Amino acid sequence: MSMLTKTGDASSRGGAGESSTAPLLEVRDLHVEFHTRDGVAKAVNGVTYDVSAGETLAVLGESGSGKSVTAQAIMGILDMPPGKISQGEILFRGRDMLRMSGEERRKIRGQKIAMIFQDALSALNPVLSVGYQLGEMFRVHQGASRKEAKAKAIELMDRVRIPAARQRVGDFPHQFSGGMRQRIMIAMALALEPDLIIADEPTTALDVTVQAQVMELLAELQNEYQMGLILITHDLGVVADVADKIAVMYAGRIVETAPVQDIYRRPAHPYTKGLLESIPRLDRKGQELYAIKGLPPNLLHIPPGCAFNPRCPRAQDVCRADVPPLHPVTEQDGTELPGRGSACHFWKETLDA
Amino acid sequence: MPDQIEKTTPDPVGAAGAITDAAVTGAATAAPKREKARSLGSDAWYDLRRNPVFVISALLILFLVVVSIWPGLFSSTSPNDCDITKSRHTAESGHPFGYNLQGCDVYARTVYGARASVTVGVCVTVGVALLGGILGGLAGFFGGWWDSILSRITDIFFGIPILLGGLVFLSVINSRSIWVVMGFMIALAWPQISRIARGSVISAKQQDYVQAARALGAGTGRIMLRHILPNAVAPVIVVATIALGTFVSLEATLSFLGVGLEAPTVSWGMDISTAAVQYRNAPHMLLYPAGALSITVLAFIMLGDAVRDALDPKLR
Amino acid sequence: MGRYVIRRLLQMVPVFLGTTFLIFIMVYALGDPVLAFFGDRTPDDATLAAKRHELGLDKPMWEQYVTYMGNVFTGDFGTAFNGQKVTELMGHAFPITIRLTLVAITIEIVFGVGLGLLAGLRRGRIADSSTLIFTLIVISIPTFVTGYLLQYFLAVEWKVIDPAVSADANFSELIVPGFVLAGVSLAYVTRLTRTSIVENLRADYLRTAVAKGLPRRRVITVHLLRNSLIPVVTHLGTDLGLLMGGALVTERIFNIQGVGFQLWNGVLRQNSQTVVGFVTILVLIFLLANLLVDLLYAVLDPRIRYA
């Protein structure tokens, strides 16, 4: 699977309907705030990204960077209030979902866009059998009978390689191991063969060995069904194997976008660079491990200018005053680097450092 | 509110709650970091001061306490200074609530009745919280046969519905002072608190920080006082405060049934009981003490609500 | 499950014996049942002693208790003050009180769960605040006050019902007393349901249910209610036992000749046999209700498995 050919083309925007070149999902200038007792927390501040069919977008960021909130906004499961989408559009196949009726959105959920949650134990209903919860998808969206739904649930469980599916279909979530539970979550998301899957840290709660298995399964199924996948994670290691392109988020903004290989070779934002350098590597054994100094910003009081400036080794006065836009990243000679962007005033210097 | 998740609220549910907390951080990625860490106590106090329910109930209770300590300030008539010829008379100058069956001034009796209700409510609550808290806490902390024996004793006392027990026990006691009634109420009401204290001590005991303290070599006494007590005491306070109102109500019910307080103590429950015989002709005899009793219970229940909201934000 | 039930039933035995012994001591040690036999007459000491001996009251307390319990297990609860068998009184009283309790529980379920669901789903809005205020008021007004107020308005002022319930105590006559009996508990059920709904609304699996594209009605009935009602059902179970004891007050106000009424008479006439007999049965019901609650828990929540 070639990485670059599948990269979404940012120039082909617009409400072109279901044309094959249009991205499956486009998020445009999304702003989300939370109104809390201590003030307004600006969780997402102008996020723009897109995913096409068969493509995997990895959204990378620390907790509090707004990556999950963006996903919840897409899914329509944001808690409102206290959350509020103050600005922006979310286009699914060219139509703004934020303007759809509740019923229209509901029909998209599960059927067209599905979500995999981080912690399957709490995301699955503890008092209903997994077979019931899987079959529910068919019963609600396709009007299947109880019997049909159960048969399809068993089929799904087989599909995600749960051993003895027929015997275990009546078991409850707590009776499965962590990895198996996550497979059930994946099965549930896959049930109606949606166009897009959003996976919110799907492997964070799992053991490392199980992590790889689950990621492999997810990538394989995505490839088979040619689904778009938004993979939300804070783990750079997970990203490298499965993603086509990456969006790095910080304090509710995208600070860098790039095809997956490029970002590892030549990051164009000091934050990305810091993240990469803080991965332990065998070839640098014996050296001190790099750590980004400071803490993620308080979303109630995001620093003026570039939100990363208090922690940035490159910060100048301009970083404390002006918010950097997402600059298109090019070579020194002006050769365009497709799909690349960096929200840093000093992206050139960072790229070549 | 997303900021609740960031709080270091001790989790009475224990380990299961910890998993959920970790899971919701996804939703709470937007949650702001607190400016400064607040302790549960100061946070609760902050919540309380801003809660109108608390302010209203606290003022009401303050007023009730003043009335019960210095009833003479509010009524110059003695509650037991009765004139049978005025039996069931309605309001007249100087006697705004009229007279009851025995010709006693209803206003004075309503004022003087506050003392019994407030005393019973506060003393029984403190007694129950101490007795139940200590017994339940010890059972939870030491476990083993201690726990088995204490739990069975708790079950035995829990097995007697309190009103039923009141009717049976108190009816055979010939002179019931306020202390006897309160003692009885404590004796039958403590199991509820004991069970809660036991449960919260057990869940606190299993928390990681307690294991950590133990691993660091902290002694039993230190673990009990510094690590478990502060975290187990909140549920006890919550349940005890909510129970306060019901104890006031219970005393009145026992007095109403004729097995609670006795004259010359003035009790709203007793007055309601005597008024009830003739209330169809003279409803005022019933309404004033009943109103005062209801407002008192309401004030304490509201206080309990506010305290629970402040100490256990999960329930809001 | 079967083994668990047996273990629990065995555990209940010492608790049952302990509780009834406690009651036995209180009634027999502090009261003087013998005096009651003579009414207003004051018998001489010799007569008293003879009567005591006849009734076995001169034996040690534990021996009397064992004798009593032995009799109880053969179905002999003794004789009431009017010479009737206590079991005969029970035969009349319990069906009435059970009917009253059923009416009260039904009211609690219908109104308590309904209001709680409404308030929980509309958290922070007017429906929620008014429900909260309503429950506060209901909890604050003691049962006997509510009872007299309802009786005064419905029976005396508006003449909708009869002030006293007839000896038959039909279901229709028991509706108003049922409301009075249910009152405070109804308010607790409402608040418990609301709390539970609000808590579960935040749960991850509810978010999953929404993300699955389920219609709102299904999210609420299948996922939210099913989980939220677990603590409510257990509360109702415990209540079942408490309500039967709580019927004391309600039965007195509406002159219902149920358990509370008989117990009250037993106390007034110092008839120990009646009092201990009725209380023993009530304690047994209370303990069984608590066992039922634990079993229901296991049925409703598959995470709980009893070995």
TrEMBL record, chain A:
Compositionally biased tracts (Polar residues): 1-10
UniProt xrefs under Pfam families: ABC_tran (PF00005), oligo_HPY (PF08352)
Matching NCBIfam families: oligo_HPY (TIGR01727)
GO CC, alphabetical: plasma membrane
Predominant subcellular localization, coarse grouping: membrane
Biological process per Gene Ontology, one example term: peptide transport
Organism, as annotated: Wenjunlia vitaminophila (Streptomyces vitaminophilus)
Family of the protein in this entry: Belongs to the ABC transporter superfamily.
Domain (ABC transporter): residue spans on this chain: 25-276
Keywords recorded for this protein, A-Z: ATP-binding, Cell inner membrane, Cell membrane, Membrane, Nucleotide-binding, Translocase, Transport
UniProt-annotated stretches for the region Disordered: 1-22
Membrane topology term: Peripheral membrane protein
InterPro entries attached to this UniProt entry: AAA+_ATPase, ABC_Ni/Peptide_Import, ABC_transporter-like_ATP-bd, ABC_transporter-like_CS, Oligopep_ABC_C, P-loop_NTPase
GO molecular function, one term: ATP binding
Subcellular location, record wording: Cell membrane
Name recorded for this polypeptide: Methionine ABC transporter ATP-binding protein
Entry annotated with the keyword Repressor: no
UniProtKB/TrEMBL annotation, chain B:
GO annotation, cellular component aspect: plasma membrane
One BP term from GO: transmembrane transport
Residue spans crossing the bilayer: 52-70, 118-141, 153-172, 232-250, 286-307
Pfam families: BPD_transp_1, OppC_N
Record's signal peptide: none
Places the protein is found: Cell membrane
Protein name in the entry: Peptide ABC transporter permease
UniProtKB/TrEMBL annotation, chain C:
Entries under PROSITE patterns matching the protein: ABC_TM1
Topology in membrane: Multi-pass membrane protein
Keyword terms of this UniProt record: Cell membrane, Membrane, Transmembrane, Transmembrane helix, Transport
Subcellular location field: Cell membrane
Family annotation (SUPFAM superfamilies): MetI-like
Transmembrane stretches, start-end: 12-31, 96-120, 132-154, 174-192, 275-300
Keyword Membrane attached: yes
Keyword NADP attached: no
Domain ABC transmembrane type-1: 94-297
GO CC field: plasma membrane
BP terms from Gene Ontology: transmembrane transport
Gene3D superfamilies named in the record: MetI-like (1.10.3720.10)
Annotated InterPro entries: BPD_transp_1_N (IPR045621), MetI-like (IPR000515), MetI-like_sf (IPR035906)
Protein family according to the UniProt entry: Belongs to the binding-protein-dependent transport system permease family.
Protein name, as recorded: ABC transporter permease
